[in-house]
């Protein structure tokens, strides 16, 4: 069961200023990981911008997010040693952002992170310059992509989409990118959106 996101151990609201934290969010099937991987390759030479590798208590599968796998025990130890800038629990997993992120943002850099809606409120309080980019797709496209993965039956997919429609309220001021069609167009839009958040 998901729990509310936990705050960073750093003191006070907006503990980190100067740079910008950009959270990229979107429902399963929207193509968020694909677009972020393309943007990462496109922007690899930018010294003022970096993509966050989240620490997650699940094994790496090589197919989705390039995260740092971690056991629950190691996660708890890292948490006790103040090794996370921010952390939260969702979908039975634990997520952490390495403490080095805060150091780079405080130095004026831009961080781009695969976001979780469960953490947006807390992250917006922790980072003074907080932005959200939302990747979307039509319900039909989402259903087709989820079916192609072969992980869920049609009833499960329908239930997931219904939950998504209820829970995924748009973050105020979020930039929205529709990835229902041409992926090159959506990739360019994501790169442009990231660069616009200076």
Automatic annotation (TrEMBL):
Signal peptide positions on this chain: none
Protein's GO biological process: 5-phosphoribose 1-diphosphate biosynthetic process; organic phosphonate metabolic process
Reaction(s) this enzyme catalyzes, per UniProt: alpha-D-ribose 1,5-bisphosphate + ATP = 5-phospho-alpha-D-ribose 1-diphosphate + ADP
Annotated Guanylate kinase/L-type calcium channel beta subunit domain residues: 18-198
Keyword tags: ATP-binding, Nucleotide-binding, Transferase
Enzyme Commission code: 2.7.4.23
Function recorded in the entry: Catalyzes the phosphorylation of ribose 1,5-bisphosphate to 5-phospho-D-ribosyl alpha-1-diphosphate (PRPP).
Protein name: Ribose 1,5-bisphosphate phosphokinase PhnN
Organism this protein belongs to: Hoeflea prorocentri
């Amino acid at each position: 069961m998901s729990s509310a996101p936990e705050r960073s151990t750093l003191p006070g609201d907006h503990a980190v200023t100067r740079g910008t934290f950009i959270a990229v969010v979107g429902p399963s099937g929207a193509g968020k990981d694909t677009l972020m991987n393309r943007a990462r390759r496109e922007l690899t030479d930018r010294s003022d911008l970096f993509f966050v590798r989240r620490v997650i208590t699940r094994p790496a599968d090589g197919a989705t997010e390039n995260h740092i796998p971690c056991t629950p025990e190691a996660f708890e130890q890292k948490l006790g040693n103040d090794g996370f800038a921010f952390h939260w629990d969702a979908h039975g997993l634990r997520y952490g952002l390495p403490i080095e992120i805060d150091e780079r943002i405080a130095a004026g850099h831009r961080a781009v992170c695969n976001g979780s809606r469960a953490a947006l409120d807390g992250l917006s309080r922790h980072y003074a310059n907080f932005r959200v980019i939302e990747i979307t797709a039509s319900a039909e496209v989402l259903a087709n992509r989820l079916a192609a993965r072969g992980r869920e039956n049609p009833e499960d997919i329908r239930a997931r989409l219904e939950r998504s429609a209820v829970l995924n309220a748009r973050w105020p001021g979020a930039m929205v990118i529709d990835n229902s069609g041409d992926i090159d167009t959506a990739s360019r839009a994501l790169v442009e959106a990231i660069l616009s958040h200076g």
